[in-house]
Amino acid sequence: MIDWYVILFLAIVMLIFHMGEFAGHRNVADYLQIPGKNQVSTGTTSLLFRLLTGTFVFFPIYLTVSQGYMAGLVLSIAGTAVLLWFSGKIGRLNDGFAVYENLGAFLNARIPGTGSVPIYLILFVAGSEGLIITGVLAQSFMKAVFGIQPAWTLSLLFFFVFVFSGMGGAGGVQKIGRWLLFGFFTGITILPIVTILFHGVSSIHEGFIKLPAADWDTGNLVAAALLFMVFTAGHLLVYYVMTGDLLRVKRTRLKTTISLTAICWSSMPVALSVITVFLMSHGRERDLVGLFPLMKHAFSSPLLYVLVVSALSCFALSLGVSLHNLISLLLTIFKGDKAIQKGYAASLVLCVLACLVTLVLDIEAVFIFYIHLFISLCLPLWLLLGYPVRWGWELSIVIIASTVLGLWVSLTIGVLAGMSGNLGLSTIVLFYLFIRKIRTI
Question: Class for domain 4-362, per CATH?
Fold first, then answer.
């Protein structure tokens, strides 16, 4: 049985230890970023903070359960390939983006008039992904495994996140985020190794060989990997335009930073898939609802502590990064001497609203929605960042239309078909618009 007061005590100690980072900002710049150039280690952890969101943690678990144990390996290879591609393109993106003061100035230059407003709102919805999906995951996990009521889980988790991220800003995210990142990676490293040592290779292998390698054929598996690459690219581009973290990394260190991130991140889907496969072989379950309760019986008490600490670290980190990104966007709107205080109030309101909303949302529906939103954002953001072309309302219309089409096809035919339809529509329409815009310049 887990003694929750131990985990609460650790959380309180972390907050007290870093109390100097909270609500001590004299201006907006202090809240948005830590002064000075980012080092390689700072840039790497910032990228990992973004990639360790609820979606990226849920993806390998979901696909391993639904489509077989090869999914984790496929996702690891696909995600790493996108990160390495991104490391080669980031220098060119920085050259075009660095001349602007902030995201608002960039959007006003590329999308004159009121056309930038819907893009701004779409980015805000995309930035809420960590807040919403992680909240749903956290309360589902704690309810299914330990019987903790969602209201307790979410209220305590959101309060912790509000203090270290909503009031702490970039300093709070970096200082406490490093501890949370360490807790998460420690957990996903220890759990597979110790589980195998405790239960023995032969007993796990007997259950393992009875599981299907993949329910999809090779063509569908390749298609899923390619679509996941588009989704990952969309995630990276949203992170890039919302935070500006990579603009502050020296050009000579950029490629090293992202390459190190790719190496660190590639282990995460594989490790999570190993844990998932062990649970599936232990209990013969083929769905998440049946998989979560197995954790209490499959792991010993010390490993349960490791599991809970690593899971809660991941949830808190995801929520914190998402909340900080949203408040950073809002601070570009707030003016005057009270901008920081308005930001604190807005972060509190967002935490309360997210806590209430996640109590009633269905995890699968929310998951599919954000998949389609990031796939829809990938090509428009790439064109917006990569080419000095002026756009208007049509860019927003393409994003919304392709998202809606993808959702409809996913709900009526299948998720993979919906993702393909989403990408196909946005590719065709954006190619036509891009050619037309080029001719008018």
Answer: mainly alpha
Amino acid residing at 54: G
Q: How far is 430 from 436, CA to CA, in rounded Å?
A: 10
Which uninterrupted H or E stretch holds 402? helix 393-412
Handedness of CA 65, 269, 355, 414 (dihedral sign): negative
Q: CA-CA distance, 266 to 70, in Å (whole number)?
A: 14
- Angle (CA) 417-419-422 rounded to 5° is 110
Phi, psi of 285 (to 5 degrees): -90, 150
pLDDT category at 204 given cuts 50, 70, 90 is low
What does the alpha-carbon distance between residue 70 and residue 64 come to, in Å, rounded to a whole number? 7
Distance spanning both ends of the chain, measured CA to CA: 67
Q: Helix, strand or coil for residue 363?
A: helix
Q: Where are the domains of the chain?
A: 4-362
pLDDT at 1: 52
Biggest CA pair distance of the chain? 67
Q: How many CB atoms lie within 10 A of CB 95?
A: 10
Residue 121, C-beta contacts closer than 8 angstroms, at least 6 positions apart: none
Phi, psi of 299 (to 5 degrees): -110, 145
Whole-number Å distance between alpha carbons of 277 and 66: 11
Please state at what angle helix 251-283 crosses helix 40-51, rounded to 10 degrees: 40
The pLDDT value recorded for residue 318 is 92
Q: Name the more confident of 346 and 193.
A: 346
pLDDT at 54 over 80: no
CB 280 within 8 A of CB 65: yes
DSSP category for residue 210: T
Asked if residue 22 has pLDDT above 80, the reply is yes
Dist. CA 269–CA 258, nearest whole Å: 17
